[in-house]
Amino acid sequence: QFPVISIDGPTASGKGTVAHRVAKQLGFHYLDSGALYRLTALSAIRHGIDLWEEQQIADLARVLPCRFEKGHVFLAGDDVTDAVRQEVIGVAASKIAVLPLVRKALVELQVSFRQAPGLVADGRDMGTVIFPDAIQKVFLTASVEARANRRYKQLIEKGFPANMEDLVKDLAERDARDMARTEAPLKPAPGAFLLDTSHITANEAVHQILSLYAS
Ligand code: CDP
Hints:
By secondary structure, the protein is α/β, with parallel strands linked by helices.
C-alpha cells in the first residue's frame, strides 16, 4: 500500500493550503475530501434535491461525475472550481456530511486517490475512518478568530461576499455539526500530531509536518 499522510481538522484551519504544499514537496497525490462533499452538495442543489434526502444524495455521490485537473474541479464537465468554494456550498456540504449513506457512498472514490508514490489526504475523517493505516496523522487546529479571518480573506480574494459576524456564526455551527454527528465525528485520530496554526504560517506548518514524516 502506498503511504498516506492524513491531515484532518475543523473548517478553515488551514488544512487545504498546508496539505497541498506537503503533497507538492513530496511529489504525492492530494485528496481534498471536502471538495467531494462540496461537489455532492452542488450536484444535489443542481438536481433540485432537498439536502436531507439521504438516499437520493447518496445515489448521486456514488457516481459523482467529478474530475480534478491542474487545480481545477469539474462537475459533469463544467468547471466549478470557484462555484464550490462559495460559503453557501460549504454550509450545504456540512449538512449532507452528517448523512451516513452519503459518507459511505464517497468512501470508494476517496480510497481511489491512493496511488503511487503516495497521498496527502485532507479532511475530517482521513486518519480515523478512510485511511486508518496512514503512516503520519496530523490534526490541525486554530482559534475561531484565526479561522474566521482566513476564511474572510479567501472569500474576498475570490470576489465572494463575506461578513465577519456571519462567518464566525457559520464556523461555530459547522464545528458543532462536524463534532456532533454520529458517523465519523471530527476528532483527532489516535496517535495524531496536534498542530495549532493560530500563530504560525502555512509554511511553518508544512515544515513541521515534513520533518515529522522524515523522522
Ligand atoms: O473549507 P472547509 O474546511 O470549510 O470545508 P471543506 O474541507 O471543503 O469541507 C466541506 C464540508 O464537508 C465540511 O464542513 C465538513 O462538514 C464536510 N467534510 C466531512 O464531513 N468530511 C470530510 N472528510 C471532509 C469534509
